[in-house]
Amino acid sequence: ALLTFGSGGSSSNIILTSMRQSVRIGCYGAMWGDTGLSAPQLLKGGNVNYLVCDYLAELTLAIMAAQKMKNKEAGFASDFVKTMGELLPEILQKGVRVVVNAGGLNVESCRKALLAVAKKHKLEIKVGCVVGDDLSSRQDEFRETREMFSGASFPPMVLSANAYLGAFPIAQALDSGCHIVVTGRVVDSALVLGPLIHEFGWGPRDLDKLSQGTLAGHLVECGAQGTGGLFTDWQSVDSWVNIGFPIVEVLPDGEFLLTKPAGTDGLVAPGPAAEQLLYEIHDPGAYHVPDVACDWTNVSIVQAGENTVRVTGARGQPPTDTYKCICTYPNGFKLVTLGQVIGHDARAKAQRVCQTLLTRWEQMARESGHKPFSDSRIELIGGDFEVSLRLSVRHTDRKALQPLVRESATAAVSMAQGGWVSPGTVSNVVSAFMCLKNKGEVPCSVDCGDGPVVCTVDMQGGFQESASKHVKPVAAKPPVGSLVKMKLRQLCWARSGDKGDAANIGLIARRPEFLPVLRHSVTTERVRMYFQPDCKGHVERFDLPGISAMNFLLHNTLGGGGSSSLHADPLAKTYGQRLLEMEIEAPAEWALAPTSRL
After folding, report:
1. Which of 96, 238, 260, 556 could, after both became Cys, cross-link 244 (CB 3.0–4.6 A)?
2. How far apart are CA 65 and CA 565, in angstroms?
3. Are 526 and 454 spatial neighbours (Cβ–Cβ below 8 Å)?
4. What is the predicted pLDDT for the residue at 108?
């Protein structure tokens, strides 16, 4: 059963006067543009104390920068203001508080827009802003900095520059009595950790609690991905129509339940929760956020009721003394064209269409006096009878690509029968430059309407080494007895994502007894070869024995990642499902045994 908790009160003037026995936080979105149905769902049926939403991604900041250049009052997630305009009376009536990173690159303008909405409804609200992450005016300080993964030099021009701040400034704003806290770039999980620090009085050395709170944030920050959305076993999720959005109910010691509103669709179980834990992480023994270095290698996720799991076992180490910073910059242009071929020998025909167009494009660019393409890529998806094609190239000069747009469509009337090719589309390439900056060089403050108040942030660091170095993994063992070939999807769940130019793939054994054979058979070298020719770097494997899982990190795999990439899947969303098609030898009885959750 769910833990019980006290109501937040019915008056907008009631904030919090004593520590709750537990705190319920619901996340209503994974991105700018997520469904508009989720916030009302959580507010009406979630019995939540807080609503949070993650509006920002790497490319989002570049989009906001372009908006702000056209209009100095723009540069924030306007959708958030619209949502608050619809829900603010009920939010205040129920005593719910809101924490979002919708401020983007213009936190103060977002605050002004919220206050205007409140005034329209004749409501009094206190809105706090966390500022200090925007380093765009300090670009010269980065000139000698090298990119933290590739070692590349700092670009000559950047569109945005932001530090990933932590949760303590959010807690400070809540301490000041704010109904709504708006931030710019903070780590996604800080939107949940901040309220927990405020509610329970956690300090910077309560490392295990901070790690648990960060994990709570990590499990909900992607919205319905943690409640059955994207789950490998999609057929076990009855419906996505009214999928429930995630709620964490957290105790003062950090232990928490993950659940969703009663009567909604979706699934909360150890499998989908474990998948979400592994999404977009590097080393689970040193998952770095500004407030703590998280060790999630021995986390436990167990069923605690219908559509409810209990999560324990996160540990924390001191954080580093630096903030990660992201700078977005213009990096040329790309031309992408799509098409389809149907009929006999479809794959061979599609390959010839793409190669013909590419050769023609190269010839046209050369004859126009342009440099060669900086990158090109042909992707074919499908079998021998029906194939979708994708051809893309990159160049530093838009003028080299624009004349090629019309040439794409000519394939439909002069090349393979039974297909079509669309005119190409030229778009800007915006790349990300990641680096580190000492925390002492990035002061942050909170403005609740009376002017900025400097935040006191622990800057001493102290991180030593990853806990993964001391994990005792389950021993790898070859299969024995009568053996059969089995696909990994019969033995595992999987979830994948990106971190820059690296892809991560988490594999979770459906049953703990599968893990020794999986560790024997699914090696780093086999994974590297499986993803050829794209995986151009080395592959690391990290063990999470607490959830019977492994996390693979494929370096230099995504063609630059994000919008820099020509890949059809530049964010590695498909990699987990692709790996599940790998075959390994396994005991014959496993092919007959029913699968089970952790």
Report:
1. 260
2. 21
3. no
4. 96
Token readout for 216 is 């709570």
- pLDDT for residue 86: 96
Q: Assess contact for 259 and 2: CB atoms under 8 A.
A: yes
Q: Which residue has the tokens 């167009």?
A: 357
List, edge to edge, every strand of the sheet that includes 287-289: 287-289, 292-295, 315-317
Q: What is the DSSP letter of 417?
A: S
Mean pLDDT by 10 residues, the chain (598 residues): 28 48 97 95 98 91 87 95 96 98 96 96 96 95 94 94 98 98 98 98 98 98 97 97 98 98 98 98 98 98 98 98 96 97 97 97 97 98 96 98 93 94 94 96 96 93 97 97 97 96 97 98 98 98 98 97 93 97 97 63
The pair of structure tokens assigned to 433 is 């430059």
Question: How many CA atoms does the CB half-sphere of 412 hold within 13 Å?
Answer: 15
Which of 282, 291, 297 lies closest to 319, judged by CA? 291
- The whole-number pLDDT of residue 63 equals 86
Residue 61's pLDDT is 84
Cα–Cα distance for residue pair 65/161, rounded to 1 Å: 10
Q: Are 509 and 470 in contact, with CB atoms under 8 Å apart?
A: no
* Whole-number Å distance between alpha carbons of 582 and 589: 19
d(CA 167, CA 171): 6
Give me the amino acid identity at 490: Q
Q: In the numeric block, which tokens belong to residue 21?
A: 């026995």
Instruction: Report, in this order, helix, strand and coil percent for the chain, each rounded to 5.
Output: 30, 25, 40
Provide the token pair at 409. Answer: 């469509």
CA distance 320 to 594: 45
Token pair for 534: 């794209």
CA 74, CA 305: separation in Å to the nearest integer? 45
- β-strands 50-53, 23-27: how paired? parallel
Q: What is the pLDDT of residue 58?
A: 78
CA 390, CA 91: separation in Å to the nearest integer? 46
Our measurement of the distance from residue 193's CA atom to the centroid of its chain's CA atoms, rounded to an integer in Å, reads: 17
d(CA 586, CA 488) in angstroms, rounded, equals 10
Q: What is residue 60's predicted lDDT score, i.e. its pLDDT? A: 87
pLDDT at 407: 92
Give the number of C-alpha atoms closer than 13 A to the C-alpha of residue 329, restricted to the C-beta side: 16
Taking CA 51 as the corner, what is the angle to CA 45 and CA 24, rounded to the nearest 5 degrees?
65
Q: What is the pLDDT of residue 10?
A: 31
Residue whose C-alpha is closest to residue 64's, from 169, 185, 157, 181: 185
Residues 6+ apart with CB under 8 A from 235: none
C-alpha gyration radius of the chain: 25
* Residue pointed to by tokens 């075959």: 583
Question: Where on the phi/psi map is residue 448: left (φ > 0), alpha (ψ -120 to 50), or beta?
Answer: alpha
Query: At 66, phi and psi to the nearest 5?
Result: -65, -40
* Residue 18 pLDDT: 56
Rounded Cα distance, 296 and 313, in Å: 7
What pTM value is reported for the model?
0.94
Q: What are phi and psi of 441, to 5 degrees?
A: -95, 0
SS3 state at 272: helix
SS3 category, 310: strand
Task: List phi, psi (to 5°) of 514.
Answer: -75, -25
